[in-house]
Amino acid sequence: MSDPKELVADFQKDFRRIEAELGKVIVGHHDVIRAVLTALFAGGHCLLEGVPGLGKTLLVRTLGSVLQLKFNRIQFTPDLMPADILGTNLVAQTPAGDRVFKFQPGPIFTQIALADEINRATPKTQSAMLEAMQEHAVTVSGQRYVLEEPFLVLATQNPLEMEGTYPLPEAQLDRFMFKIMVSFSSLDELRRILERTTDKQNIQVDKIIDGPKVLVHQALVRDVVAAPHVKDYVSRLVWATHPESELAPESVRKFVRFGSSPRGAQSIVLASKVAALIDGRFNAGFQDVKAAAHAALRHRILLNFEGEAEGIKIEKVIDEILGHVTPDLKAAVATA
Prior knowledge:
The chain is an alpha/beta fold. The chain has two domains: 1-79 and 109-222, Rossmann fold (3-Layer(aba) Sandwich); 224-336, Helicase, Ruva Protein, domain 3. The chain is 48% helix and 16% strand. The protein has a five-stranded parallel beta sheet. A two-stranded antiparallel ribbon has the order 3-4. It is globular. The model has no long low-confidence stretch (mean pLDDT 87).
C-alpha cells in the first residue's frame, strides 16, 4: 500500500475503530480521547490533569487493551524512588557458582507507561522519567538501555491545589506533547456512567492494531505536508508567547514570565498533521494549528508573580495570542 489516498484512508479507519473501542468503556470525553490518540500517532507523550475519579486511569488502561502493546502502570507515591521506575542491578549467582550483577528492568520497560498521579512523587523521582521520555532510553549504573518502540508515557496528575502534590519540573513538563484538562462529566454522561458501572454489564474491547502498525502510522504523520506558510504561522504563535517578543500581545508582556520552547512549535505541527489525516487530508492547515494550540502550549507558558497574583488563566492568554497573531493568507494563496 503506497498510494497516499489509500494510506490516509487506512489511517482514518484505524483511528476511528480505536475511538469506537475506547467509547465502549469511556463515557464522553471525546476531545480527551482524540487528543490522546493524536499524541500516540505523533509520537508524543500526554499529561492528563483532573480531580480523582474522572476516568483518566481507566482511559489509559483501556487504550492499553485496545492496542497490542506492552502496558505497565506505575503508581507514583511520595516514597517512590527512581530505581522503582528504572530498575536496578541485583546480585545473581551463575550456574558455576560465581556472583555477578544482573540488571532487573523496572516498569518503565514497556510500550505504554501509565504514570498514575505523577505529581504525588517528589521531583527527584519525577526526574527519573526525563531520559526515557526524551530519548526512549534509560541509563542505570552507566549502562544505557534502549526502550522498545513505540514508546508512550501517559501521565495523570491531580490539580496542584490538592493536598500531597508536587509541581512537575519545567524540564519534564516540556517533554509532554500535550497537557489535557479532564473536566467533570455532564449530567447525561453521569447517568450513563452509573448505568455502565453499577448494572451488570460485560463490556469487551477488541484489539485493533499492534506496534508495527502504530509505527507505520507514525511514519505517515511525518510525511504529511505542512507548507512553509503553516510553519511560519506556528513559529509566530510560539514566538508571541515570549514577553520580549515584538509579536506578544499585552497580556503576555504583562503577565508571562517564560514562553514556550521550540518543542511547543514541534508539537503543534505534528498535531496539525494528525488532524489533517483524521480529516482525510494530506496537508495541514491553519485551522489544524489553532485546534492544537491550547493543548500544546498551556503547560509551556509560565506566569510571572503578577499573573499568578491576579489569577490570570493560561487559556485566556492563549486565546489572546490566537486573536493577535493571524495567518498569512496571502502566502497561503500564493502557494495554493
